[in-house]
Amino acid sequence: MHITRLRLTSFRNHDSTDVGFLRGVNVLIGLNGQGKTNIVEAINLLATGGSHRTSMMTALIEKNADHGVVNAEIAHDSRSLSVDVVLDRTGANKARANGNSVRMRDLSRFIHAVVFAPEDLKIVRDDPEERRAFLDAIVTVLSPRMIAVFSDYDRALKQRNSLLKSLRFVNRGQRDLSTLAVWDEKIIGLGTEITFARLAAVSALREPLARAYENVAGTAQLTDIRLISKVHVGLDEASPRDLIAEKFTISTIAALDDDLDRGTTSIGPHRDDVTFVLNELPVKGYASHGETWSFTLALKLATAELFRHDSLGDPILLLDDVFAELDESRRQRLTHAIRDFEQVIITAAVENDVPNVNVQRTFYVDAGRVSEGHAA
Ligand SMILES: Nc1ncnc2c1ncn2[C@@H]1O[C@H](COP(=O)(O)OP(=O)(O)OP(=O)(O)O)[C@@H](O)[C@H]1O
Ligand SMILES: [Mg+2]
Questions:
Q1: CA of 52 to the centre of ligand 2 (A)
Q2: Domain boundaries, the chain
Q3: Which atom of ligand 1 is closest in space to residue 349's alpha carbon?
Q4: pTM (2 decimals)?
Q5: What is the CATH architecture assignment of 120-307?
Q6: H-type alpha helices, the chain
Q7: Residue 36 Cα, ligand 1 centroid: separation in angstroms?
Q8: How do residues 343-360 score in pLDDT, each as one tens digit?
Q9: CATH C-level class of 1-112+312-376
Q10: Closest residue (by CA) to atom 12 of ligand 1?
Q11: Is 17 in the pocket of ligand 1 (CB under 6 A)?
Q12: Residue 245: CB partners within 8 Å, gap ≥ 6?
């Protein structure tokens, strides 16, 4: 798929931007702070319903406006699709696909994009939450019905946690645990689906990751990815659902007293982590800076490869400022790896940092205004 037109109204520092993108490579050039990443963020918003930079959605609305609007025309095979998001400073944000209301969280059913950005290093380096989010973006593309499972799970978890908190004030002997059992059942049912789907995603990612790492780093290395399940330590990618549910139940029962003491749920996929492995050592805490970069790029490339085989076709690749961070050989390898994707949008502060690719259109971004073909 590819974007043919993107319109931003009161989005970040873009008052009114209207850009016509082409199939193939599009480049956005501009000095620091002019609004390049904001364009990437807008496209990613349409593809995920969220921002890769902040969870505070009001930050996306132009500072003096009450609403921010993003609209894109998308082409896929011979079909076209128009997607809008309207961000509201005080009310609910809204999304539409071809004029029909859709939930923000369901936008990933319509547009697939993969963003590469320097901030992606956080996937490898930061908290487990980053790795769960990375993996779950893949899970929901491979299996869109999981979008609802994740939100049902989150709701059940909140309910169980607030019940646990209220039970802390009841004497042990007088606690009625029957309502808790209802939430346990929900959490185990939904959490089993999540664990099963995450194990499947990890398994699907393994080979593309190895290939992508070799493509980026230039040498074949032993790479691996493993889900560290908080449901049960002994689960592996061959575990069937009923075994996951059984282990989950055992762990939940064993943790009950602790959970009641702490007023929070300690067992479940909300506590999962993912371990990335390079040459039999975890990337986090062991890999060099360059290796960490190669691994992060490889994770994104592997994701793009997986999405590619989905019914929506090629994802839109967004490369935000990545070339400036890469040495010449990695630049060339990355360029090679993305060369036959349907659409690639590259941003750079310095035009010379963009490798010699077959650029279809160059835009210049200056103070939230975008012009085509010539430096502003
Ligand atoms: N809600 C908002 N309203 C108005 N301006 C905003 C808002 N949010 C961010 N900005 C402005 O947008 C600019 C940042 O744009 P962006 O991150 O797209 O820059 P960039 O071109 O990617 O720069 P760099 O090359 O440094 O990455 C900043 O000047 C920031 O103050
Ligand atoms: Mg930027």
A1: 12
A2: 1-112+312-376, 120-307
A3: 25
A4: 0.94
A5: Up-down Bundle (1.20)
A6: 36-48, 121-125, 128-142, 146-167, 178-217, 241-254, 256-262, 289-308, 328-337
A7: 8
A8: 999 999 999 999 888 999
A9: alpha beta
A10: 13
A11: no
A12: 188, 189, 192
